[in-house]
Specification:
Chain B: InterPro entries: ATP-dep_Glu-Cys_Ligase-2 (IPR051680), CP_ATPgrasp_2 (IPR025841), DUF403 (IPR007296). Chain B: It comes from Methylovulum psychrotolerans. Chain B: This is Circularly permuted type 2 ATP-grasp protein. The complex is a heterodimer of chains A (310) and B (857). Chain A is built from 7 helices and 13 strands. Helix content of chain A is 22%, strand content 37%. Chain A has 2 domains: 2-84 and 276-309, Sandwich (Immunoglobulin-like); 89-274, C8orf32 fold, CATH 3.10.620.30. Chain A is of the alpha+beta class. In chain B, helix 15 packs parallel to helix 22 and helix 26 (757-770) packs antiparallel against helix 27. Chain B is elongated. The relative contact order of chain B is 0.10. Classes of the chains: A alpha+beta (310), B alpha+beta (857). At the A-B interface, strand 1, strand 3, helix 2, strand 12 and strand 13 of A face helix 6, strand 6 and strand 20 of B.
Amino acid sequence: MKYRITHTTTYNYSQAVGLCQNQARLQPRNFWRQHCVDSRFEIIPPPKDFRELSDYFGNRLAYFAIQQPHRQLVVTAVSDISLFPGRQRHELLPQQSWRQVQHFFQETSGQNLNKQQLQTLLEAKQYVLDSPMISASPELADYALPSFQDDRPLLDVVSDLMRRIYTDFTYDPTSTTIATPLLEVLAKRRGVCQDFAHLAIGCLRSFGIPARYVSGYLETVPAPGKPRLVGADASHAWFAVYIPDLGWLDFDPTNNKMPHDQHITLAWGRDYADVTPLKGIAFGGGQHTLSVSVDVLRLEGDGGFGEEFF
Amino acid sequence: MRSPSELANDIGVQYYETRLGVYDEMVTTEHKVLPYWQHFVNALETMGSEEIEHRRREAQRLLRENGVTYNVYGDTQKLTRPWRLDPIPLLISSEEWTVIEAGLKQRARLLDLILKDIYGEQNLLKKGLLPMELVFAHQGFLHPCQGTLQNQPIQLTIYSANLVRGAKGRFWVLDDRAQAPSGFGYALENRTVMTRVLPDILRDTQVHRLSGFFKGLSKGLANIALHNKENPRIVVLTPGPFNETYFEHAYLAAYLGYTLVQGDDLTVRDGHVWLKSLEGLQHVDVILRRVDDSFCDPLELRIDSRLGVTGLLEAVRRGNVAIANPLGSSVLENPALLAFLPKLARYFLNEDLLLPSVATWWCGQQRERDFVLQNLEHLDIKQINRRQDTSFLAGNTLSAAQKDALRAAILAKPHLYVGQEQVTPSTVPSFISHRIQPRTAVLRNFVVANGEDYLVMPGGLTRVAQDKDDVAVSNQAGGISKDTWVLAAEPSQAPSVLVQPNRLFLLDAVTEPLTSRAADHLFWVGRYLERTEAVARLLRTALLKYQDMLEFKDTIDSVALAALLHSLTHVTMTYPGFVNGPPESLEHPQDELLSLAKDGHRPGSLAANIQAFVQSAYNIRDLWSQDTWRSVDNIQYRWKLRVVNGEIVIEQLQSYLDDLITGVVAFSGLTSETMTREAGWLMLGSGRRLERALALIALLRATLVQRYDTAVQNQVLEAVLFSTDSLTIYQRRYRSFMELSAVLELLLLDETHPRSVAYQLRLLSEHISALPRDRSKRKLSEEERLIIKAYTDLRLSNIVDLLKISDDEGIYTQLEQLLADTTKLLWGIADTIAQAYFSHSQTSQLMTANIPPEDEP
């Protein structure tokens, strides 16, 4: 499957901004089921200082600074990617139980592992610990408990947890902001994709299971007979779990699906704070308004989710 | 038998009560003074307790006058708490120092290697020598800093450790300070004061000097510059005057000759760090930081930080700026590391630790966790991440319920806790209540990278508990500090007399640019200074008139007094005051006058102006000479003592005002004697001239614009002349005829009279045209245009026109118009100067794309 993603962010200021510095994680990363063929920025006004690098989690990161006065900033990232289908639930055999996985991460210090295993362990272990926006807690553990039945394979535990979040929680963009604490989301039973991803991650970490946050896009397909609206798509977020022998598996609690061939990954990290798509600090500017438009265009291939999917 | 006079001098060594099982620095368990203390104790006994007390007070006075403070967070009432120094130092023998010195050097080398590994290859994690969660769960491990360490032989430039001596006389390391160690400035200041207070004893005792350490520090900081190694620009980055150790930041900057900056004095452009100075952007090569690392860059670290420099980490990553210590080094302050240091010392150095750490058990490991849970009441429990309130619990002080809660917390996230042995630090002799008494002490030592090796300060900062039974020592809780004397082995050692470290001159123009922040504060120092003087003089004049009225009971006096009281409210803008307040306040003005003198919470009052003046001056503490700061301190200290906190009656106010005016004049004199005539001087001068003009115009508008009967007018004119210190010159020129036109000639238009409006505008105009600016545009700047207009309008006016009057009006309309117009132009000048020169005040805002639009402000 091939896609072209156009992600445009526009800032308008009531007064001139003399200087702004930004970090963008808007270029899709490469990994086994995704290849980013091309990704380029169009930034207006053009930054005098622009540099691409990769962050601690291996995501693609661009630093840029606009050093002349401006009253509008438009950041567009255009990326062409090839997506290979992810593994589906029925293709995977249930492997280790959650207790085995929990034990593995609690007790292994890494002394008897080979280099490859060690690297994986080292990487996975940081996703068991608390992160800036997600802390393991008794409340999260309580909520997750029914999914963690004894001796249940971890894969089944996570699938069940995802299904319960999908069922128990209402998708409601007005109920939360990025600053809403996780426990409030849990109490209100409402939120958006990043809340559900954080929630699932918090539940898993409360049981000592490594889980990480994935930011990206989801292709939407208009209802039959309706025209496709350019820019109507949105950023999306889900989570991934590390399951020994299977590696990292993605789960989308907003849609109760394991991503197959319509989830395009931008970046991953411990939580949203690690992978904010675009953040910047502007000097001056007065009041600012912001608009974001995302367009996920399928270049070849068929099918897709319906609009009601969201 | 001792004679009574001997008893009075007794310093009480024979009553010195050490505690059982606690090591004492001065006496053995058999209560014998240790040989290396003997000489010092003899000297003290010769001096006697009264003399020591006298010297202790002298030390306190010097510290206060030098503005040595330690701010306590949340203690807003007393922003500046005086630093306390005990006149008895901690003595360390030469042999013991050799051990400490070697141990600290080894530890610094070890921590440096650990730092490099954690932000580099992470072999310690891969080899299982350090548990992953120990590093990853510590808030000092900053992901964005991974791979940002530059190619330097040593990364950990400055290191500090807190040491205590245990019961058996061995030194232990209590904790390590690795990100922005504080205290070496206080140590230096303590020594400076001791050379003044105990010069004789210090001369006779062979004590190591401290200056070598600071030379090493200066060299070490220049060494880490990645560019301009020959002449790097080094700045001290401070969180600002509200930080607890701000004094030290300013002190070090002044002592080492670096520019003191706050985050918004710096900017990152093209991946380089620049200092925003009045002369334009200046490249910064090295930052000595006193801001915690997570606050240093809001773009990549804590986004809510207002203390950092946006883009700083990117500049580091590109190798364009060096920071001491590097961002991320607080990862070394993790107390759990202490448990692994012996193993890591063998791994990296193939050595055993020379200085042991206090015994520490990290709960992330099963066996250690079980031990801690079973021995809670014998241990101190710490969280590996330092928090303001809950990071430290002494197990033996906990109730059963608290212990249960703690156990549950440890079991929930064991890797976040350590248990530590409860140490009972040694006691040191301290001079308290006229006697020598033992107090628990902690010694902080300082180490600086020097080429490929480390240099240890031969001395340190000793802190002692205030109360006899305290075992914990903390500055926050109001501890006392001590100088630390490391005794030299060779008697030939040069006497350790330090030169007074502070710069004699205000600004070192060649190397030190003036930051826009400093310019801003200088401008306001000038303005508040003039406001203070104007209000003090007017208040004094009103008091005199009030006494006249009481004495002569003449209605003319009452009318003139009312005019003066009105003008006082107008000039201070403390409405309703005498203008719209109760009418009887004009008959009985005492309460309002006292309030204007002492009420610091009332904007416009004398107390509030003095406070604002001192606060502005404190913000640029590093720029003032010792004497100048003393004059600032005197102004504040006396006014607070006598007026603000004192029980004063109106009759006393007069003499205090005289004294205050003398103090203000002294400050003005000192600045004009010590400041070089450059940007800083121009800013201070502009503030002063602008404010003096404004205050004078406000006074003239409130007094002279109105028409009075001749008798009243004469009184008012005389009061105005007195209030502006112009009565003598007037009388010399015009004899004693009070004539409105002559008074206006003198106070408004006479350019040779330093108290006239014309004089202020002429100087302001000269200052403004001398300010640094881009002159390529061949165009007047806005502030130049405004001052030319104000100055010219004034010069073109003439007294006859100004005093033209139509019979039905009670005021001189043209005079009022000129004064009002000039005021408006002066306000405009203040605004344009702020816009053009105080660029640090531009606010930044965070832009994050994913915040829903409805949440936008």
